[in-house]
Specification:
Helix content is 41%, strand content 19%. By secondary structure, the protein is an alpha+beta fold.
């Protein structure tokens, strides 16, 4: 049983990070989450939810570390350059 749990944790760590850094207009933009939103989010970039991280954070909720990373630091990933105004 301990071996299974260890393998399960290793597998979860390998799959963490579904959100990836993207280069838009020659500038690297990192994913952000609920913890580092103020630091990493750029108003020039459109972000989308990283559903892989939502699923991983939910499935591995009992591990504590995985949801902290998935929801706190990699929940939204850069998608494209923001065009137009937000209200339109």
């Amino acid at each position: 049983m301990k071996k299974f749990i260890a393998l399960f944790l290793v597998a979860s760590i390998l799959f963490i990070g579904c959100a990836s850094t993207r280069s838009i207009g020659g500038v690297e933009y990192k994913p952000y989450g609920l913890i580092n939103e103020a630091k990493e989010q750029s108003p020039k970039v459109k972000y989308s939810t990283s559903w892989g991280n939502v699923i991983l954070g939910t499935v591995f909720l009992w591990t504590i570390a995985t949801p902290i990373y998935c929801f706190g630091y990699a929940l939204f990933e850069p998608e494209a350059e923001q065009t137009g105004s937000l209200g339109k």
